[in-house]
Amino acid sequence: MPHHPSESPADVVARLRATFATGRTKPLAWRREQLEALRRLLTERGDELAAALHADLGKGAKEAYRTEIDFTVREIDHTLQHLAQWLRPQPVPVPERLSPASAYTVQDPLGVVLVIAPWNYPVQLLLAPVVGALAAGNCVVAKPSELAPATSRAVAGLLPRYLDRDAVAVVEGAVPETTDLLAQRFDHIFYTGNGQVGRIVMRAAAENLTPVTLELGGKSPVFVDRGTDLGTVAARLAAAKFMNAGQTCVAPDYVLTDPQTARELEKALAEVLRDLYGQDPAESPDYGRIVNERHFDRLSGLLDSGRTVTGGTRDRARRYIAPTVLAEVAPDSPVMGEEIFGPILPLVEVADLDEAIAFIRDRDKPLALYAFTESQTTRDRLTRETSSGGLAFGLPVAHLTVSDLPFGGVGESGMGSYHGRYSLDTFSHRKAVLDKPLG
Ligand code: NAD
C-alpha cells in the first residue's frame, strides 16, 4: 500500500528532494533514529516478512531469518555501533609550502538515491542498501522486485509505518514503473540484478551523470584441490549451493576438480544431500522453490548437461527441482553457458590448478571465487592470478556476512561495493577540505 497512491515518480522524488533540502536527514541523531526504527520493523514484523518470503520462494523460516531478516539486523547493529566514528573528519598531512594549514575530508550525503532490488533475497537486498543510504544521511526511494510480490507488498506496507515518510518512499512495480523512475534525476542509483538490466540502469543514469553501483551476478567457480577432506568440502559446498534452491548471486555455480577427486566428491555430495534434505527434498521444510515458471523451464533445460549423480527430478506444478549434482559436464554444455541460478551443481574436470586458473580467466570475472585446498601456494596463486568480486577459501558465501569486507563485483559481475563502512562510502561524497588561517 503506497502512502500517496496517486503520486507519480516525479512527485515522489520532488517530495523527497524537498525534505533533503531542509537538512533534516543530515544530523547523526536522525540517521540513528531511522536505523533504529528499521531495526524495530525487522524484529517486530519479522514473522510477517518470513511469511511473505515463504509465499514468494518457499523459504523456510529459519533460512528467512538467517539470510534476510537477522542478516539485515546485524548490518544495522554494525552501522549503529560505528557510524559516529566513520563520520569523523579524516585529517590528512598538508605539504610544507602550505603550512600552517589543515586538510581533511568529510562525508557529504548525496541527496535522493534510488535502490532497485531483485527477487531472490527480496528483504536483504532491498533493505541492506537502504541501511547504507540512511546512514549516509540521504533520502531514498526503494523499488522492490515485482517477482517477489508478497514481499514487495509487505515492505511497501511496513516501511512508511516505521520510517520518516517524507525521506523514505517505496515504489512498487515492474518494468514500466521502474522505467518511469529511471527517467527521474537521482544522486545515486544502486541496482542489484542481472547485467542486461544493469546496462539499462547505467544508460539511464548517464543522462543525469548519476553515479551507479551495479551488484550483478555470473558464474562463481569452486576449485577443489586433491587431498582435501571431501566430507567437509561436500557439506559446506552443498549448504551454500542449495540454500534458497540455488537462487543466490554468490552461490557456487560449478566445481572444477581433477577426475579422481570428482569421483569421490560426487559420492560425498549425494550423502550430504540426504542428510540436509532427507530422502525426498520435496517434503523438506528447509528446501525452497523456483521463483516462477519461466525460471523453472529455463532450469529444466539444463538438467541433461551431464551424468546425473543425484536429483534430476522436477515438478512444474510445485515449481520444485530436486537438488541435482551432474558429473562429467563438458565446458560447452548448456549448463555451463549461463549463470545457473538454481539447484544444479555441475562437476567439470580439469587436469590441475593451471588448467583451473586458465578456465576461470577465460571467462567473465565472477562475483565470487571459492577454493578448498590445504596448500598455501595454491591459495597464493589463486589470489594473484585470478580476478573476482570476492575470494573465499574453505567456506563459500559466508564472506558477505563479514561486515567489514566490501561486497561487490568486478567486470561483468558489477561495479562498486557495499556493507558496513563501504555502504557509507557508496552513498556519500568524500569532500576535500583545506583550511588555511588568514593571519
Ligand atoms: P529481477 O528480475 O527481480 O530484476 C531486478 C530488478 O530490476 C527488479 O526490481 C526489476 O523490476 C528491475 N527491472 C527488470 N527489468 C527492468 C527493465 N527493463 N528496466 C528497469 N528495471 C528493470 O532480478 P534478476 O535480474 O532476475 O536477478 C537475478 C540476477 O541478479 C542474477 O544474475 C544474480 O546473480 C544477480 N544478483 C546479484 C546480487 C549481488 O548482490 N551482486 C544479488 C542478487 C542477485
Automatic annotation (TrEMBL):
Keywords: Oxidoreductase. InterPro entries: Ald_DH/histidinol_DH (IPR016161), Ald_DH_C (IPR016163), Ald_DH_CS_CYS (IPR016160), Ald_DH_CS_GLU (IPR029510), Ald_DH_N (IPR016162), Aldehyde_DH_dom (IPR015590), Aldehyde_DH_NAD(P) (IPR012394). CDD domains: ALDH_F3-13-14_CALDH-like. The active site is at E215. Residues 13-433 form the Aldehyde dehydrogenase domain. Pfam families: Aldedh (PF00171). Gene3D superfamilies: Aldehyde Dehydrogenase, Chain A, domain 1, Aldehyde Dehydrogenase, Chain A, domain 2. PANTHER family: ALDEHYDE DEHYDROGENASE (PTHR43570), ALDEHYDE DEHYDROGENASE TYPE III, ISOFORM Q (PTHR43570:SF16). Belongs to the aldehyde dehydrogenase family. This is Aldehyde dehydrogenase.
